[in-house]
């Protein structure tokens, strides 16, 4: 609803009408359309009728909606992905992607323009730097930048960002590779926890040799142990395998119990059949050629909280 309130504020500011009047018009519009559109959608129509363009104003991430054009925003880079090369239908090129966040949420930004991608390759765009984006296009829940868009480093300081994804909840049957998504489902299968070692510098897998660990990039290291947990969730439409790493696992099972087989059995009984919200990125598992959800957040469904949210909407 924060989204809606911001829209009302913007319309009030640009039109000079008071908020109550705007809300009245929005309700009238919804009634006329038999409630077929959301409050946000009706607010957009009202703003268009008042001749107020929501294009080219600086938006917060929580205000973004699929299909928006000419999106301007400022955000802090919280995750940078390696530049990928593609070769499809005789066209080849590069794709850059990063996650930015502001006070209201986080968002995947996809770069198609080589000049923009160079900013990543030349390490001019780094984690924690603030970027200013102009003229982006929202596709699904991602912001896409073409050659007509701009991205540059900003001197603005953004202190507190909301790192968790603000992405809409999706049905498992509708999930697509590359998306950020939040699903709600019941754990129907749980695999034994596994442990592996990573380099403390680059977090990549460390190779165990007889006398210690080696990182391909950093040589001899004292490796960090990490845990990996896989489970399958079912939301009634389909199932998907979820991959959880240490930081997320400890939200479900206290760290000190991970290596205690008896306690793990108890947790297993508790987790199986319980309902969770899981958000993260949808990736293709090359080995099984199926989609899996790499979790960046996991939360047990709290029914009381859920009812509260549903009643507000
Ligand atoms: Zn390393």
Give structural notes.
The protein has 313 residues and is an alpha+beta fold. The protein folds into three domains: 2-49, no CATH class; 61-153, OB fold (Dihydrolipoamide Acetyltransferase, E2P), CATH 2.40.50; 172-312, OB fold (Dihydrolipoamide Acetyltransferase, E2P). The protein is 23% helix and 37% strand. The chain contains seven helices and 16 strands. It has helices at 2-15, 19-32, 39-49, 114-121, 246-249, 261-271, 303-312, and strands at 71-80, 84-88, 91-101, 106-111, 130-139, 142-145, 150-153, 180-190, 194-198, 207-209, 212-215, 219-221, 224-234, 239-245, 275-285, 290-300. The strands form three sheets. Strands 1-3-4-6-5 form a five-stranded mixed beta barrel. It has a five-stranded mixed β-barrel with strand order 8-13-14-16-15. Strands 10-11-12 form a three-stranded antiparallel sheet, with no helix packed on it. Helix 2 crosses helix 3 (39-49). The longest helix is centred in the N-terminal third of the chain and has 14 residues, at 2-15. It is globular. The chain starts with a helix and ends with a helix. The model has no long low-confidence stretch (mean pLDDT 85). Zinc ion binds next to loops.
